[in-house]
Amino acid sequence: MGTNVDVHGTVAEGFEPVGEAFAENFAARGERGAAVAVYRDGRRVVDLWAGTRDVDGADGSPRWERDTAQIVRSATKGVAAAVLLLLHQRGELDLDAPVGAYWPEYKAAGKERTLVWHLLAHRAGVPALDVPLTPAEAADPALGARAVAAQAPAWEPGTDHGYHAQTYSWLTDGLVRRVTGRSIGEWIAAEVAGPLGADLWVGLPDSERARVGRVGRVEPPASENGGLRTRPKRAVAEAYADPDSLTSRSFGAITPHADENDPAYRAAVLPASNGIATADGLARFYAALIGEVDGGIRLFTPETLERARTEASAGPDRVLVVPTRFGLGYMLHGGASPLLAPGSFGHPGRGGALGFADPESGIAFGYVTNGFRTNVTADPRAQALVRAVRTATTA
User: Fold this and answer.
1) Catalytic residue among 61, 74, 273, 361
2) pLDDT at position 226, please?
3) Other CB atoms within 10 A of residue 237 CB
4) Distance (Å, rounded) from C-alpha 70 to C-alpha 339?
5) Closest by CA position to 28, among listed 48, 3, 57, 7
6) Cβ of 65: how many Cβ atoms within 10 Å?
7) 42-68 confidence digits (pLDDT tens)
8) Distance separating alpha carbons of residues 128 and 137, to the nearest angstrom
9) How far apart, in Å, do the first and last CA atoms of the chain sit?
10) How far apart are CA 60 and CA 71, in angstroms?
């Protein structure tokens, strides 16, 4: 049985279906607290929030406010990818150069031919570590970088793809530190979130801790009719169940799993998994990738935008098992990650959050929640909102 809640915020004329779908997520899809924001051609057209700030909140607990932020898990990857692409755009990083040209220690154990773009397209061959890191070790950037630099690849880099669920953190941050002298979180704060006025962090400052709600796992309602995402095919289920599979080892590169409500974890710089954002911050970021926001700031040139969303990996994913499609750091529209339209690009967070842009329609989208589910991609609540955006933009 769902819950009816008071929905706050604004919806521009024509986007009423998004408001209806957002309310329905609470009434029928088990939502506890969430927000959604949509931009079109750089102008905000949806800005909604409802529920409690904390997933375990009850009557009388803090309500979700417009500036409430949440951890967005792997939706962070899309933000991190922009850093490498922007460094390339500025002439400070060559995407086609060997990683070892910037990071000499990475030229070890058969990884000499790994190119920078391989890291973004999940073709680097190091989705897992032979010796997993503890949460405390994972938060140490030097230790994480040493671990991926020493790791032998599971396949010859560049020849295949598999989702780098956790190691993406140390691969991208390690490279950015060597190119810029700053962490990827510091670079995002100074060059992306700050200029944009976007509530978006990789490495949460102490000053923002009170805005961030508690997250946790929620079960889907019994009435929900799941498909591949909630009732996986046997091969997918077996891959996750087998502790020795590349799937399990990739998601288990940090073992035991970190406590996502721990302030120390939230303050760490882990661009694969621990970004924190408001829905508006996520949508605003994607809006600036495809055009000017508020008539001013734009992040990607048209050339960078096309490279970011041009297919670089496709087919059976060695980690996720199902077929996936990636550009450079972004999932592309497809069965594993349905977005708005064929030209859309973005990134989900496991079991919840989603951010993406669709250049053809001028849409940028951000959804954050405090209740995570077991699906890896294509969360039913996010997908209901995406369908509503599609209805609004094709009416």
Assistant:
1) 74
2) 45
3) 12
4) 21
5) 3
6) 14
7) 999 999 999 999 999 877 789 999 999
8) 15
9) 31
10) 23
Topology classification of domain 8-394: Beta-lactamase (3.40.710)
Q: Are strands 323-326 and 313-316 parallel, antiparallel or unpaired?
A: antiparallel
- Angle, CA of 296, 284 and 23, to the nearest 5°: 140
Q: Is 284 helix (H, G, I), strand (E, B) or coil?
A: helix
Contact 363, 40 (CB under 8 A): yes
Which tens digit of pLDDT belongs to each residue from 294-330? 878 999 999 999 999 999 999 999 999 999 999 999 9
Contact 388, 18 (CB under 8 A): yes
Rounded Cα distance, 321 and 316, in Å? 6
With beta carbons less than 8 A apart as the criterion, state whether 365 and 283 touch: yes
Helices 279-290 + 302-309 axis angle, to 10: 110
Q: Which residues 6+ apart lie within 8 Å of 26 measured at CB?
A: 2, 3, 4, 5, 7, 34, 50, 51
Token pair recorded at residue 81: 């990818």
Residue 2: predicted pLDDT: 54
Q: How remote is the C-alpha of 31 from its chain's centroid? A: 19
Which residue has tokens 């997908």?
A: 383
pTM of the model: 0.96
Active site residue 74: yes
**Under 8 Å between Cβ of 98 and 115:** yes
Tokens of 114: 């790994």
Tell me the DSSP string of 47-64.
EEEEEBSSTT--TTSPBP
The amino acid occupying position 330 is: Y
Q: At CA 287, angle to CA 205 and CA 209, rounded to 5?
A: 15
